[in-house]
Amino acid sequence: MFHYTVETKKSVEDAVESLEQQLSLEQFGVLWKFNVKDKLTKKGLDFHQEFRILEVCNPKEAESILSENTLAGYFLPCKMVVYDEQGTTKIGMPKPTALVSLIGDAAVQSLASDIEERLIHCISKSV
Q1: Is the bond preceding 77 in cis, omega lying within 30 degrees of 0?
Q2: Left, alpha or beta for 105 (phi > 0: left; psi -120 to 50: alpha)?
Q3: Where are the domains of the chain?
Q4: If you average pLDDT over residues 108-123, what whole number do you get?
């Protein structure tokens, strides 16, 4: 599977807050938070699902990966999502290892594996 997704009993807002706290402990900052529902509603569309997209980055890790292979920049920053699906809050992300496998670079794959483990840890602690 290209993604890692878990369920939580928390609300979308509480899950986002918890995830941000866990990310900061791993030195990942949230560069951008996008509230899809609010944006689409403001554009006049009838979208009622709570759906947040977070772009997260650890500057040291980004520098390491880009120094190895600039093509990895196509997958930066890492995206994480928190959303409501039929009354259940979910937290997930595309797996960095799945994305960078397209590059075919063992060194980048190794870095992505470490980052993936740390991001999964953050998600697990947010539940």
Answers
A1: yes
A2: beta
A3: 3-126
A4: 97
Q: Under a CB-based contact definition with an 8 Å cutoff, are residues 85 and 55 in contact?
A: no
Please choose, from the candidates 89, 66, 116, the residue with its C-alpha nearest in 3D space to the C-alpha of residue 17: 89
pLDDT in tens, 56-103: 999 999 999 999 999 999 999 999 999 999 999 999 999 999 999 999
71-104 core/surface letters (b: 16 or more CB in 10 A; e: else): ebeebbbbbbbbbbeeeebbbbbbbbbebbeebe
Q: Which of 56, 58, 36, 51 is nearest to 91 (CA)?
A: 51
Chain CA centroid to CA 25, Å: 15
> Cα separation of 39 and 20, whole Å?
21
Classified by CATH at the fold level, domain 3-126 comes out as TATA-Binding Protein (3.30.310)
CA dihedral sign of residues 37, 39, 41, 46: negative
